[in-house]
Amino acid sequence: MSNSVLLGIGETKTMSATPTTTSHAAAESGARKGEPPQVSFDVFRVLRDDGTLDPATDPKLADEHVVDLYRSMVRTRVIDERLVVLQRQGRIGFHIGSLGEEATIIGSAAAARPQDWIFPCYREFGALLLRGMPLQRYVDNMFGNANDPVRGRQMPDHYTGRQYKFGSVSSPIGTQITQAVGFAWAAKMKKDDLATLTYFGEGATSSNEFHCGMNFAAVFKAPTIFLCRNNGWAISVPASKQSASDTFAEKAIAYGMRGVRCDGNDLFAVYATVRDAIARAAAGEGPTLVELLTYRLSGHSTSDDPKAYRKEQEVEGWKLKDPVVRMRAYLQKKGLWSEQKQAQVEEETDAALKACVKAAEETPAPSLESMFDDVFAEMPWHLREQRDELLKGPRAKGHH
Amino acid sequence: MPQMNMVQAINDALRLEMRRNDKVVILGEDVGKVGGVFRVTAGLYDEFGEDRVIDTPLSEGGIIGAAIGMALYGLVPIPEIQFADFIFPAYDQIVSELAKFRYRSGGEYVSKLVIRTPMGGGIRGGHYHSQSPESQFIHVAGLKVVCPTNPYDAKGLLLASIRDPDPVLFFEPKRIYRAAKGEVPEGDYTVPLSQASVVRPGKHLTVISWGAMIYEALDAANQAAAKGIEAEVIDLRTLWPIDIDTIVESVKKTGRVVVVHEAPKSCGLGGEIIAMINEKCFTHLEAPPVRVTGFDTPFPYTLELEYLPLAHRILPAIVETAAY
Q1: Which of A151, A318, A359, B315 has the fewest CB atoms within 10 Å of its CB?
Q2: B110 touches chain A (CB under 8 A)
Q3: Is residue A8 domain-shared with residue A83, that is, in the same domain?
């Protein structure tokens, strides 16, 4: 397998040193403010091609913990696959998943401490379930029914999980980034020991919010971990057209921030990288930009057909580095996993999902009047008027 | 009772609330050491320190995005946007995030903040230091929009805005920042949101306005009185949610309406107010409702006093509507 497959889209050359000759002129003297930020261009890896761990970088997780995390990865994948089928059957309207990116999500969320908050993009349902959200609530969100945490007000996969220290998903790209920074910054002001993890794709590095968030976090040393899932594609636009930088991690340099590159299909590497970044943030060292090299094996969402813009050959190459496959090989080699266990977790997930789907389909739609709740804390006159008009209308009885 | 101008009254409200509630923080461009380009936050940095009165990088999107995150954590941020004309880099955060947080999270999350920003023309500010973009925020479900016209209301409305559970855009008419003076009580009081104020009673005609134009409306009403027309002038104070009861009560009495605002005419709040009047008290109308507003052009520099709906443009509208 070629090195470029291992290292990811956009990896064309090796840069080994931080650019110490770069001049960031301080206003008065023309001198640098200090040492340049550390950006590692080497891709951090733990899980080697032969299915063993590199002892130099091994985060030394307990075997039971690793097995648990692998189960979460498998569950995430099974749910993803089944939801696509439900969408094709017309039973749910939409799904946006994490096929091929499970290690970036499960590895990072697992590395977070209980007090750390997650500001998601929209592919991180695996992290939400790992944090304890019942599967039923997630499936209710897929159906937008009366038990949906967001009360049927948003598309599927736009969930919320405050009690799990998990933010509210919205569709605009990057808006969660500055919010994660503000949250962490406020916590730091109040001397509260927490960090925020914010997820986004490499496409979001082109957004205003990435720039604003990186800049504010670095200036105010906010304890935020910027998790850039470089999955190769922003819908149909390849990473190579998203940015002229050789890497996404190096964008950290200009902000005065630490940047690291990590094999995003290696759960151990993701875990170790994020754990280290959180420890540094907690120690007052400020934020880190983490580029997680991975690949979006599916389309952008169920509304997208990637065959229109990318070659199957490229996808096949990345399937060889499938994070679930790599983990399974590792576990089987260590005698921690078996065909039976694999079948069991898949069957259990499938059964649990089926039960949740059945319950969700039997749950009614949100009430008509709920459309007008939560716009404001108290409903003003104009919304009361509009609600009453709807309730008097022909759809008041027996909608849906 | 001390005499204050608008700047002093707003500063007084901020100081009072920051002393009362240690969760309140101010952030924005030049709000710290220098106390803001209009000096509205003067002295607060010295009293409360750099963690509560924060000079930020020059980035409205960053200011509002970070403020939303702070609010989600539990602080009560009061970001300042230096001029309302520069709020648009933050428009995505305000429209897509701030306004929708409570709704889109099923009530789980609330992002409570008050965005203060100077608005309006008449200060030789050209396109980018003069606009009145209030209707662009009113059209977004989930935002409250406030605009005081005098020091007493400025302090009381700001304190009410900070304590209100919903996000508020607090537009400060900068043309009258120092010109509008009045008695302001020391200590704590609030002016309730969504309550308009009848600043001049009258029986022949209703003039509805807000911001700096309220003084032009009063000027025109006083000139009309010399012609025997007694105009009632309503200062909306809170633009959204609007106090429809005060408007309808007045129109039912007078049957005639002139709405005055600085913002461009088309799709301005004036059109919406007239539509509401049509829905609620059409049969009481004795004359077609009239708008006297800024024009549908970018805000001009040299001709700004011709663009603004000053008293000399309001008076003929009052006279013609009264005579209809």
Answers
A1: A359
A2: yes
A3: no
